[in-house]
Amino acid sequence: MDEWCGLMGCWLCGLYSVLAMLVVARLLVVTARGHNGEGIEHTQFSRHSHHGQGAPGRGRGAGARHPLKLIKCLLVTKPKKLKLPPGPWTLPLIGSMHHLVSNPLPYRAMRDLAHKHGPLMMLWLGEVPTVVVSSPEAAQAITKTHDITFADRHMNSTVGIFTFNGMDLIFGSYGEQWRQLRKLSVQELLSAARVQSFQRIREEEVGRFMQSLATSATAGTAVDLSKMIASFVNDTFVRESIGSRCKYQDEYLDALGTAMRMAAELSVANIFPSSRLLQNLSTALRRAMACRDWMAHIIGQIIRETKEAMDRADKTSNESFISVLLRLQKEASLPIELTDHIVMALMIDLFSAGSDSASTTLTWCMTELIRYPATMARAQSEVREAFKGKTTTITEDELARANLSYLKCVAKEALRLHCPVPLLLPRKCRETCQVMGYDIPKGTCVFVNVWAICRDAKYWEDPEEFRPERFENSSLDYKGTDYEFLPFGSGRRMCPGGNLGLANMELALASLLYHFDWKLPSGVEPKNVDVCEAPGLVAKKNTGLVLHPVVSRVFAPVNMPN
Fold first, then answer.
1. Strand pairing class (120-125; 128-133)
2. Beta partners for 438?
3. How does it sit in the membrane (predicted)?
4. For residue 210, what is the DSSP state?
5. How many domains does the chain have?
6. What is the three-class DSSP state of 30?
7. pLDDT at residue 22, rounded to an integer
8. pLDDT digits 0-9 by tens, 420-465
9. Residue in 33, 285, 315, 335 with CA at minimum distance from that of residue 181
């Protein structure tokens, strides 16, 4: 923690140095142009005090006549004459960012700040006005009552690079193209029928996973279960996305991991998006472009090879995600043109959203079951009673018939305690509106802190405890209508791929509990298993989950192609 704060302090010092040079450069430009104010844009923003009272703007040219006014324009500012949500005191240039350095996980720091300032809280991340939502009531106001007003995504410069400037579904601006892509995703890519069509793939990959664990169990070696889970989910998702194992898989997943880390990084260019100088000087953005271009090159290769295969086979049964997109592109039956760039952006969406969430949630399920032996015993008992005497791997049809209610509660509790994306993905206010008595200015970035909501003692008994029983005899679900439990979001921007992610996870979880017992390394107690999250967009486990698998139910894997 101290090391992280020290690094953050160095970063802030560097930021002040860069911005000081920016101020000097701007002053020199003004001097060179004379005192007519050319190049200084009028702004509706003005410097604010700690009490949030804005001063009236001076209009175009004020910065040129008075150099201090120019510096004033570069300071963190608030809109005039608006009743903004309360928030912590701010500093020039960096705004509220110094309040977030106490914890490398921003959703935890934001939860602590919300305890002081309320469920609708205003922060300034550099020059970016940001509202943090931390209660079910506020979440409902944003995602339901004012859903259309907050239907846009906040997209920083780095994310814009990776999404080809918002040509995808996840970060695309709300409009006709986005609506058509959403419709395409729901009806063609992520429908119940499409998810069902991948059943055989999931069963085969679970069989491979179980066989690999059995080999380690026979040898008596420990495994890093979190890494094996990630590999299993990635293999499954690659086959669902492309149709087969892919020779580019490893390098593409490496590039995608780099992109995910870069998207979560703190960048000067992202917190001062209006500065062209900082955008041009940013090494982070240049690295993002290089990474995006490499990903596009790999996906381009996959697209070309898939098109060639489709021309030879011309089949539509058991289509992969990419073959569906290329078929629709060829048919040209959509109201929008499905360009190769849109196909690339959608494939990046599917990989980044689908694989990370499923592997993260499955890892947390096993982590918490190891920490709570009584809960593990009950979950295993349910699974083993349902499949008693079975000597082959479990199939999805058998899992559906068994209706393992407690196992579903385990999955829900893992999603509650460890929301895959703790702040969801940020929305953007499309026009100034009023929420819960406060004005939210147009362009404001909005985070819904579902991690804080799901751990709020007002709505959950013993919120820090892993207790799947809380979901027994409860109608609470993750479909977006229970605002105290929104792991996949709600409203127009709700994640459409939740069913696919859960399908990729549930069969594996049941199989892990049926076929194996699990032991911690010698000397490690269940209560000491690390449950810290790693920094990033997705709340992954910070350390590996090292366990000894012990075969409990001998099995013969179902048919598994090489």
1. antiparallel
2. 435
3. Single-pass membrane protein
4. H
5. 2
6. helix
7. 45
8. 999 999 999 999 999 999 999 999 999 999 999 999 999 999 999 9
9. 335
DSSP 84: P
Token pair of 26 as six digits: 């701007």
CATH code at 523?
1.10.630.10
Considering the domain architecture, whether residues 181 and 71 belong to the same structural domain is answered as no
Q: Which of 30-39, 111-120, 432-441 has the lowest mean pLDDT?
A: 30-39
Angle CA 55–61–65, to nearest 5: 90
Burial of 515 from C-beta contacts in 10 A (0-12 / 13-18 / 19+): buried
Chosen domain end from 25, 59, 81: 81
Query: How many Å apart are CA 128 and CA 156, to the nearest integer?
Result: 10
Q: How many CB atoms lie within 10 A of CB 377?
A: 11
Tallying the residues shown for the chain, one arrives at 562
What's the rounded mean pLDDT across residues 228-235? 94
Domain span at 184: 176-551
pLDDT for residue 488 is more than 50: yes
- Residue 102 forms part of a structural domain: no
Assess if residue 114 is contained within a domain.
no
Closest CA to 368 of 376, 360, 357, 377: 376
Please give the Cα distance from 130 to 120 (Å, whole number): 10
Tell me: do 219 and 368 sit in the same domain: yes
Residues 244 and 391 in one domain: yes
> Rounded distance, CA 48 to CA 26, Å?
22
Residue 124 lies in a domain: no
How many helices (H) and strands (E) would you count in the chain? 21, 12
pLDDT in tens, 314-338: 555 578 999 999 999 999 889 999 9
Contact between residue 429 and residue 147 where contact means Cβ atoms under 8 Å apart: no
Give the pTM: 0.85
68 with 204, same domain: the answer is no
142's tokens: 């944003």
Is 495 annotated as belonging to a binding site? yes
Residue 462, phi then psi, degrees to nearest 5: 45, 60
Its sign, for the CA torsion 326, 328, 332, 338, is negative
Distance CA 337, CA 212 (A): 44
Say if residue 218 is in the same domain as residue 74.
Answer: no
265: left (phi over 0), alpha (psi -120 to 50) or beta: beta
Q: Is 436 a member of any domain?
A: yes
Same domain, 341 and 215: yes
Distances (CA, A) of 364 to 253, 369, 410, 412, 416: 21, 8, 10, 11, 11
| More confident: 548 or 101 | 548
Residues in a beta bridge with 132: 121, 447
Same domain for 220 and 74: no
